[in-house]
Design a protein that fits this description.
Elements: E1 5-18, E2 21-37, H1 49-70, E3 79-86, H2 92-99, H3 104-110, E4 120-124, E5 131-137, E6 148-152, E7 162-170
Parallel strand pairs: 3-4
Antiparallel strand pairs: 1-2, 2-7, 3-5, 3-7, 5-6
Helix pairs in contact: 1-2, 1-3
């Protein structure tokens, strides 16, 4: 593992009722978070390749942990997302280096493929601050029922010289989704859009 990991946290959110109605099957989201040392905290560095390599390793690790937490086969994953929060001694570009060039491919392998872009967010923050992880259908961006998010918060992370990296996956869309559009069952999954 190229990342210096201080902590990993994994949990599942399961919605059984919404608006007084049962959700069946339950809507389930898993999120896995790694808190890593930021090797570039406090200084400007032109070459961010070390963070890109860390992103590649974290995409595989965190994606696998999410699938295991849901107790499903990788091809049963329906949506995914990623996010990173840098501590105050870092810069936003450090989060971008982890998330964009290399994290996506190993995440897709961990979740049984995916033609759609992996939605992402990045921010700067401190311990206990909320990081929103956006979610979108893994095979088709236009599946409205899967536009969603999950919050992550760790009381001691990220510290000034750390980065908190999160991956989330689901085995369903939003509870009681009913805003129309392309359905999960109607996805072709060839172009990442439909």
């Amino acid at each position: 593992m190229s990342a210096d990991i201080r902590k990993i946290a994994v949990w599942v959110e399961e919605t059984l009722q919404e608006a007084g109605r049962p959700v069946s099957p339950a809507s389930r989201k898993a999120v896995a978070v790694a808190v890593i040392r930021n090797p570039f905290a406090g200084r400007y560095v032109e070459d961010l390749n070390a963070l890109m390599e860390a992103g590649e390793d974290l995409g595989a690790l965190l994606g696998r942990r999410c699938v295991e937490a849901l107790g499903i086969a990788p091809d049963q994953v329906q949506s995914y997302g990623k996010a990173a929060m840098v501590g105050e001694a870092g810069e936003l570009e450090h989060a971008a280096a982890i998330l964009h060039p290399k994290l996506g491919a190993p995440l897709r392998r961990a979740v049984g493929g995916g033609a759609a872009l992996v939605p992402s967010s990045k921010k700067m923050g401190g311990p206990g601050q909320v990081l929103d992880v956006p979610l979108g259908h893994k095979r088709a961006a236009y599946v409205r029922s899967h536009f969603d998010a999950i919050e992550v918060r760790l009381n001691d992370s990220p510290r000034s010289g750390e980065i908190m990296v999160a991956v989330a996956v689901t085995d369903s869309g939003r509870p009681l989704a009913r805003v129309g559009g392309l359905s999960h069952d109607g996805v072709e999954g060839t172009d990442g859009l439909r």
